[in-house]
Amino acid sequence: GGPRRLLLISNSTLHGGGYLGHCQHHIQSFLGQKVKRVLFIPYALHDRDAYARTAREKFESLGYGLDSIHESCDPVEAVRKSEAIFIGGGNTFRLLKALYDNSLIHEIRKRVLEDGIPYMGSSAGTNVATISINTTNDMPIVYPPSLQALGLVPFNINPHYLDPDIKRTHMDETREERIRQYHEEPNTPPVLGLREGTMLLVEGDKATLQGVTGARLFLRGKKPTEHEPGTDFSFLLTDSKPLNP
C-alpha cells in the first residue's frame, strides 16, 4: 500500500476546450507511467455507454487504457483489480445511489486509502470523494440511502463554485449563502469552493490547489477566505479525521 493520492477536479470541461482538456497535463503527471489502465465509473450520467466512449477516447489519447465499470459483470471485482479509478461528473445523487447499490463505497475506500491506488474525480466524482454530498449543486433526482460519501478527505467540496454576479438584478441565493446555511448546522466540516478550472491534488497528508483559477474556503463560524493556485491546504487533511461510512 501507499499514501492516498487524489486529483479532485472542479469541472471536466472548461469554456473553449474539450473534455478534460484544461487538466490533461495534470492527469498525466498524476497517473504517471506506472498506471496502464484506468477504471471509469460513469454512474452520474444516464447514458453510460456514450459517457464511457467520451472518457475512453480522452484517456487513450493520453496513453492510458480505460475500462468502464458498467461493462463489468462484477463491479466489486472490477474495483479490486483496478490500477486507478476515475469517477466522472453528472448528477451527484444518482452517482452516490449507484455506488451504494453496487456495494462500492467500502471497496473504493479500501483501494484508495489502504492500497494507495490513484483516485480522480471531476464534479460529482469530486463531491463523492468527500465526507458527504451535502454541498453539491445538484437536484436530488433519486434518493441514495445516505448523503455520506467516500470520505477520502475529511471536509466537503463545492465544485463549479460561482461568485455572486453584482450586475444581476435577479435576487436568488448565492452559492456563498447556501454554504453558510450548511454551516449553521452543528459539527459541519470545512467546505472548499473550487471554481471552474481548479483542482485539488492530495498526496498523503499534503493538499495543493492547482489550475488556473482560485478557490474559496468556508470554515464554520468564520469569514470565507480567498486562495490562489499553489495554496497549501494540507491543514484541512490533518485538522479532522475522515468519517467511516
Automatic annotation (TrEMBL):
- Name of the top EC class for this enzyme: hydrolase
One Gene Ontology biological process? proteolysis
Write out the ranges of the annotated region (Disordered).
222-245
Reply yes or no: does the keyword Hydrolase apply: yes
Write down what this protein is called: dipeptidase E
Query: EC number(s) per UniProt?
Result: 3.4.13.21
Q: Name one GO cellular component term.
A: cytoplasm
Catalytic reactions of this protein:
Dipeptidase E catalyzes the hydrolysis of dipeptides Asp-|-Xaa. It does not act on peptides with N-terminal Glu, Asn or Gln, nor does it cleave isoaspartyl peptides
Q: Where in the cell is it found?
A: Cytoplasm
Q: Which GO terms describe its molecular function?
A: dipeptidase activity; serine-type peptidase activity
- Which superkingdom is the protein from? Eukaryota
Role this protein plays: Hydrolyzes dipeptides containing N-terminal aspartate residues.
Instruction: State where it is primarily located.
Output: cytoplasm
- State the family it belongs to: Belongs to the peptidase S51 family.
Q: Keywords in UniProt for this one?
A: Cytoplasm, Dipeptidase, Hydrolase, Protease, Serine protease
